[in-house]
Amino acid sequence: MDPYTLGRDGLVALLDDLAGPQPAYRAAQVRAWLARGVDEPAAMTDLPAGLRRRLAEVFDEPPRVATRSVADRGLTHKILLTHPDGESTESVLMLYPARDGSRPRAGRATVCVSTQAGCAMGCPFCATGQAGFRRQLSAGEILRQVTVAQRLLRGDEIVSATPGAVLGPRVPDHVSNVVFMGMGEPLANSDATLAAVRWLCGREEPTFGLSARAVTVSTVGLVPGMRRLGALGLPVTLAVSLHAPNDALRDDLVPLNRRHPLAELLDACRAWIQVTGRRLSFEYVLIGGINDAPEHAEQLADLVGELRAHVNLIPMNPTPAVPWRAPPPERMRAFAAVLERSGLAVSLRRNRGGEIDAACGQLYADYAVASGRIMPVARGAAARLAARVGPQPAREQR
Ligand code: SAH
Ligand code: SF4
User: Fold this and answer.
1) Atom 8, ligand 1: which residue's CA is nearest?
2) The model's pTM
3) Which atom of ligand 2 is least distant from the CA of 127?
4) Can you list the positions of beta strands (E) in the chain?
5) Which atom of ligand 1 approaches the CA of 219 most closely?
6) pLDDT digits over 263-305, tens only?
7) Residue 184 gets which letter from DSSP?
8) CB burial of residue 73 (10 Å; 0-12, 13-18, 19+)
9) Centre of ligand 2 from the C-alpha of residue 160, in Å
10) Tens of pLDDT along 335-345?
11) In sequence order, which residues have a C-beta less than 8 Å from that of residue 130 and are 6 or more positions away?
12) Is 3 helix (H, G, I), strand (E, B) or coil?
């Protein structure tokens, strides 16, 4: 049983079931522990010992940290978790130390969480998409990626793993930001994603205490899920993975586009802005020779200009099943310049964690993709794109 999925009423019923009628505050005690990231009943010290034992029998065990790889001189940690059923997922903890001289424990610690084991969307450039879908994660399995990171930050493992101890007191001892950008499509698992978002930063106590602005949900454009997330009424940040400025190209880069084409997706973006009053950001992975021509940038500016959105350009990180690479730096800068000239806010992301396969799109746990297998939808899209690109000059790629 996943303690984070039970809900208040479910928990009250469970406690009564396990130990007879309980005082009204009992469920609140358990939920307060869970919100503090204490997810093992044995550590819930204000509960009667018998109840702790019974809860330990019925609550899912926390995942095990199978391996942790460190990159960027201790600033990036990839955490491979094994869940009690043997399934694995990856999360990434990214540290952004405060400047020298600021107050101790300032700075940011961001966890990038997975919402599914694998992904069914089949984007050919993404390692998770190449590997295919294995199963949904529960709300607890999403949140426990945060609690695992929290425990790492509280202990001294992170600081001691850092060469030259550059971090020390300049990183926080708690998770300050959560981004739903790991393995999987959050809105293809929207019940669990929405429940996790509410635990992190909802209006109903108890929560993990994050501000909604410190939570980002990235979606490839699942329109019904975007509506559900908007209806929560929480000012979380929405990142929409666009990657192509026209339907012909996006149909192959993001196969979901055939179901929710650009016009429908942009309507959903406008609705999001209207309902939440928040700006949104678009993610655009720059792939050399595929979607990086100046003409693509112009089309993109025309497409999203009126939304006053932020455009996040992400250099393509290498993945096992396709030969694609990021364009040369000057071509990426030229792409960004076209967008800037049209008045858009643009950033060119510096990728982290590349040396340990922890960068965007490189998460596939220990799945078969490592041995070169690729799911059919991603294989088909990659083949069509390869044929399209061939030896042609960039301007004919649209
Ligand atoms: N499924 C969601 C969230 C997970 S992917 C989504 O697609 O938005 C998180 C981000 O990593 C997305 O913007 C995705 O497009 C990007 N990404 C995927 N593969 C990548 C790669 N090979 N290089 C760089 N970014 C990649
Ligand atoms: Fe899934 Fe996102 Fe990867 Fe596409 S980019 S396959 S939606 S995880």
Assistant:
1) 219
2) 0.92
3) 3
4) 64-71, 76-82, 88-96, 108-112, 116-118, 133-136, 177-180, 215-219, 237-241, 281-286, 310-315, 345-348
5) 8
6) 999 999 999 999 999 889 999 999 999 999 999 999 999 999 9
7) S
8) exposed
9) 34
10) 999 999 999 99
11) 124, 319, 320, 321, 322, 364, 369, 374, 375, 378
12) coil
- What does the H/E/C string look like for 349-381? CCCCCHHHCCCCCCCCCCCHHHHCCCCHHHHHH
Sheet holding 281-286, edge to edge: 64-71, 76-82, 88-96, 108-112, 177-180, 215-219, 237-241, 281-286, 310-315, 345-348
The closest-lying atom of ligand 1 relative to the alpha carbon of residue 243 is: 15
What pairing do the DSSP bridges indicate for beta strands 133-136 and 177-180? unpaired
361 C-alpha to center of ligand 1: Å? 5
Spot the catalytic one: 90, 141, 185, 283.
Answer: 90
pLDDT digits 0-9 by tens, 235-254:
999 999 999 999 999 999 99
- The residue contributing the CA closest to ligand 1 atom 18 is 361
Q: Which two tokens stand for residue 33?
A: 């522990």
Distance CA 243, CA 122 (A): 14
Q: Residues with Cβ within 6 A of ligand 1? A: 125-126, 181, 185, 218-220, 241, 283, 285, 314, 316-317, 319, 360-361
Q: In this structure, are residues 291 and 253 in contact, taking their beta carbons and an 8 Å threshold?
A: yes
| Nearest alpha carbon to residue 382 among 287, 283, 298 | 287
The alpha carbon of 253 and the centre of ligand 1 are apart by a number of angstroms equal to 11
Q: How far is the CA of 8 from the centre of ligand 2 (A)?
A: 33
- Any catalytic annotation for residue 126? no
